[in-house]
Amino acid sequence: MRTILSTATLVVFLLAPASFAQDQATGRALGVVTRMDAAARQITLKTDTGDVAVTVDAKAKVVRVAPGATNLTNAAAIELTDINVGDRLRARGRTAEDKSLAALEIVVISQSDIASKQAAERADWDRRGATGIIAEVAADSFTINVRTLAGVKPLIVKPAANAVVRRYTPDSVKFADAKPSKISDLRKGDQVRARGDKTADSLEMTADEIVSGQFKMIAGLVISVDLQENVIRINNVETKKPMTVKISADSSLKKLQPQLAQVIANRLHGVAPVEGAPGGAAPGAGRGGFGGGRGGNGDLQSMIDRTPAIKFADLMTGDAIIVSSVNGANPEQVTAITLLAGVEAILTKPGTREMSLGDWNVGGGADIGGFGQ
């Protein structure tokens, strides 16, 4: 669920009902800088509806705000030369007939500030977050089962008074598309990623942020990889039928290191590891690595979040993968939130060549700190 790291949560001040699109009625454009010519005072913005040419008036107010700002109280005046390609920008002014914009005000959030904010968010999700399947829902709390290397552990989650609660929408893997939700919307079997403070015994959490969704977990063997269409064909290990997995810009692709995959497989299948064998301990267990400084008993989603990212082109025919996606209209095609490779040991039943997903769960995916980016 990469985390609740979508820029939708970071650039509050820049967002508006017509987010990242040109609003001709108010002479406003929101988007990402793709071309910058400070000498000519011209900027090209990429918005949801296409490119917008912005000419900055000589008397225009140009300021920078921090990610998450809700007003201009702490805005800092900058020069046009301080704006870079990749920055997020809101321009206000007069719209011409050719739909270009003569800007009288420019508000910028720098790409580097967004990256720093996202890194801090990811670190906090890793430190204070938990992922699990809802086992029980009460009036003011819910219980999730968190899978760890030591087994499944229940965690009671109580929303803070000002908790942010969102829910993934069908057929979308983007957290930016997640809708505001309520605790009463949660159902048994939903997958949840929550971030907050836990009690000393780690049995309860007071959550500041909660993201939920109904996710589909699929395991399969790669049949073909289409780099042009950004899709792969797999043979579903459960149904034995082919299906299509679409890879979008918001999909998170990762590959487990062999040692970690074997450790997880041993625990899931109840196989005692051989001392000194590759599956004996997860890399970094008990040293702040995959074990998260907890003797290798950290929740599996945190371990997966730390595994190396791979490129779509790295996938090969015959690879075993596990895919998480939202439930969509077409059961034979899904868009990956998270695609996890290097899972052969996890899927293969001990003593056989048969593969099965079982009750394995990969988490939500890409743009919510593991649910997502």
Instruction: Give me the CATH architecture of the largest domain, please.
Output: Beta Barrel
The average pLDDT value, as a whole number, equals 80
Give the tally of β-strands: 21
Number of helices: 4
- What overall form do the CA principal axes indicate? globular
Mind telling me the CATH class of the largest domain? Mainly Beta
Q: Strand fraction band?
A: 35-45%
Instruction: Quickly give the structural class.
Output: mainly beta
Radius of gyration: 23 Å
Distance between the termini: 8 Å
Oligomer: single chain
Binned, the helix content reads 10-25%
The domain count comes to 3
Q: Which regions have little confidence, pLDDT < 50, spanning 5+ residues?
A: 1-25, 277-297, 363-373
Could you give the order of the helices and strands?
A: EEEEEEHEEEEEEEEEEHHEEEHEE
